[in-house]
Amino acid sequence: NAGVMQNPRHLVRRRGQEARLRCSPMKGHSHVYWYRQLPEEGLKFMVYLQKENIIDESGMPKERFSAEFPKEGPSILRIQQVVRGDSAAYFCASSPTGGQEQFFGPGTRLTVL
Amino acid sequence: EDQVTQSPEALRLQEGESSSLNCSYTVSGLRGLFWYRQDPGKGPEFLFTLYSAGEEKEKERLKATLTKKESFLHITAPKPEDSATYLCAVPLIQGAQKLVFGQGTRLTINP
């Protein structure tokens, strides 16, 4: 049973470009969470999605950031017009139902030049 | 404010030297506490879930315990491969799916 998959593992963007981060949850998991880990800081919750629905986006900046989890395909975290402060590791986690253990992917390390 | 605090921030031990990591939390209505291990450049790896005070879970050289205000991760006779950052997290009562993480304890085991 494959774990949570994220791609790309490393992404370099120049200021003002768009970043698209993808996450495929574990098989049988319909709940997806995105977290951000800034250098020397802890993991911070961004958004929680179920298929085709955003359940909680309270940790996601209101501007430039969006997330989706379509009926088919991976969950996407999209960052428009990236700035240097967006440089971080972005982790996706999944669980079979809400309120249970979350299993994390390997992360996407975004570097903004 | 819901908060999770881990101590110490960093810990260096000699191989075989047992110790404990602490995770204290201020969350109204605990709905579980999770321990994860994170290696450099990787995602957190799930270790344990604890749900009620007095509960204990074990896995190899690790044992996690829970009281009403804190959790301990005991490491017995550690080996160099146990070196990692150990994270604890609790779900918020209002949004049980949202995990609040501590800053982690960076553990180094010297051979």
Could you characterize what this model shows?
The complex is a heterodimer of chains A (113) and B (111). Helices cover 0% and strands 50% of the residues of chain A. Chain A is mainly beta and 113 residues long. In chain A, strand 4 and strand 5 form a beta hairpin. Chain B has 111 residues and is an all-beta fold. Chain B is built from no helices and 11 strands. In chain B, the strands form 2 sheets. In chain B, strands 2, 4, 5, 9, 10 and 11 form a 6-stranded mixed sheet that branches. In chain B, strands 1-3-8-7-6 form a 5-stranded antiparallel sheet, with no helix packed on it. In chain B, 35% of the residues are buried. The mean pLDDT of chain B is 92. The chains are: A mainly beta (113), B mainly beta (111). At the A-B interface, strand 4, strand 5 and strand 10 of A face strand 5, strand 9 and strand 10 of B.
List keywords for this structure.
heterodimer, A: 113 residues, mainly beta, seven-stranded mixed sheet, four-stranded antiparallel sheet, 11 strands, 50% strand, globular, B: 111 residues, six-stranded mixed sheet, five-stranded antiparallel sheet, 56% strand
Question: What topology does this entry show?
Answer:
The complex is a heterodimer of chains A (113) and B (111).
Chain A: E1 5-7, E2 10-13, E3 19-24, E4 31-37, E5 43-50, E6 53-56, E7 65-68, E8 75-79, E9 88-95, E10 103-104, E11 108-112
Parallel strand pairs in A: 2-11
Antiparallel strand pairs in A: 1-3, 3-8, 4-5, 4-9, 5-6, 7-8, 9-10, 9-11
Chain B: E1 3-7, E2 10-14, E3 19-26, E4 33-38, E5 45-50, E6 56-59, E7 62-66, E8 70-75, E9 84-91, E10 99-101, E11 105-110
Parallel strand pairs in B: 2-11
Antiparallel strand pairs in B: 1-3, 3-8, 4-5, 4-9, 6-7, 7-8, 9-10, 9-11
